[in-house]
Amino acid sequence: MNVEIVRFLESDLDTVFEIQKAAFLPLYEKYRDDDTSPYKESRESVLRKYTREGTVGYLFLLDGAAVGAVRVNLEKENGSARISALCVLPQVQGRGIAQSALRKIEKLHPDIRRWSLSTILEEKGNCHLYEKIGYRKTGKTETVNDKMTLVYYEKSEEREGIPMQVPDEIGKLIAGKEYTCDETGMSGSKILIFDDFVLKIVSRKLEDEDSAVRVMRWLEEKIPVPKVIAYEKDDKDQYLLMSKVPGRMSCDEYYLERPKELLSLLAQALRLLWSIDVSGCPRERSIDAELEEAKYRVENHLVDLDNAEPDTFGEGGFADPQALLEWLHDHKPEYDPVLSHGDFCLPNLFIENGRVSGLIDLGETGVGDRWRDIALCWRSLKHNFDGTYGGKVYPDFDPDLLFDALGIEPDREKLRFSLLLDELI
Question: Is 343 a catalytic residue?
């Protein structure tokens, strides 16, 4: 999937107008917000808002076709910007387009330190999307009618010194140190990389890092994982300061150009995990436990449709997350417990001098089904080589080569089950 953003021109008005109408129609029919819905705006109103002073409009292109749009209202004198009327065509929603576009827009405006927006409080999926990419509720809400409430969000960045107000113990350890931000992963965490530390900051609403910290400490003498240096929480966020794992990510271009070497190392890492005696492991993520988590997320509209595979939902796929959940219950396979990383994708494996130097992002690690890691590794290989992740295509690669590297026969039913379950969790 190749998402591009291009500046709005007046000649794009008809395209933006039609996208906006199509995208906001389902919400208008649900909430009947006549005074606030972009669906009700006239063509003239859309043009006026996209061309007013201080506003920049963008179109989202998917493989060259316009599928979305947004307005960015800039206030450069105070380093702030507001996101307005973000819309994506219904038929391509759930493919990560909005998330990708927003991140690219932020990079185009490095002078902006505070981003703000509002969304519909009752649309839990939208709220989750914004929280996942770093937005936090300001505490302000606005009642539109008896069905709909607007909730306000902000995302703030500092460019120098300590990145934000962190707990005292961690603040002392990182004070004055230079860092870079890592946006490679998809977890929704903020990752700050120092010379010798890595600081992970994640909302308490997105993840519970307590269990991850317990697992990391349990694993310290068993396999190469980051060492926990400090772990603190406040009312909104969790702060995990870890040692920095040496080496390169296994999705580095060097390894993608050497697939045979890469596959051998991936198989080595998986076997290392499976060799660990799981007695005493402080966490278990059985298939039943993951189905319960999936049920909670479906019932509370927390399924991240923007990152779903394009054929999972809609024509040829499942009607909605509830239909997928029912299918998963009807096709539950036999449980094969091992030590499972839980998110075994290429960015989470580091390599140095031809060996596995570390596994990171251990928030889902624990006793789990063997095929969860196999499936997520298979999908990560597929999309790193086909250009979905990273944008560069490495031709003539078959992810089924992973099974050869592991010396196993592919179990297509367990592969599909594990990949579909991951869509919900």
Answer: yes
Residue 146, in any domain of the structure: no
Query: Tokens standing for 340?
Result: 């499972």
DSSP assignment string, 48-64: HHHHSTTEEEEEEEETT
User: Helices (DSSP H) in 56-113: which residue ranges?
Assistant: 97-108
Distance set, CA 328 to CA 284, 292, 295, 336, 424 (Å): 19, 11, 10, 17, 10
- Asked if the model's pLDDT at residue 224 lies above 50, the reply is yes
* Per-residue DSSP letter, 384: H
Question: Tens digits of per-residue pLDDT, 302-325?
Answer: 888 777 888 899 888 999 999 999
Final residue of a domain: which of 210, 243, 276? 243
The C-alpha atoms of residue 344 and residue 365 are separated, in whole angstroms, by: 9
Range of the domain at 106: 3-119+128-140
The beta strands (E) that lie in 164-302 are given as 180-182, 190-193, 197-203, 228-233, 237-243, 248-249, 284-285
Give this prediction's pTM: 0.68
Separation of first and last alpha carbons in the chain: 22
In whole angstroms, give the CA distance from residue 281 to residue 126: 35
Kindly state the tokens that stand for 324.
Answer: 């997928």
Catalytic residue among 343, 361, 373, 422: 343
Q: Write b or e for each residue in 382-410: b if 16 or more Cβ atoms lie within 10 A of its Cβ, otherwise e.
A: bbbbbebbbeeeeeebebeebbebbeeee
Same domain, 266 and 371: yes
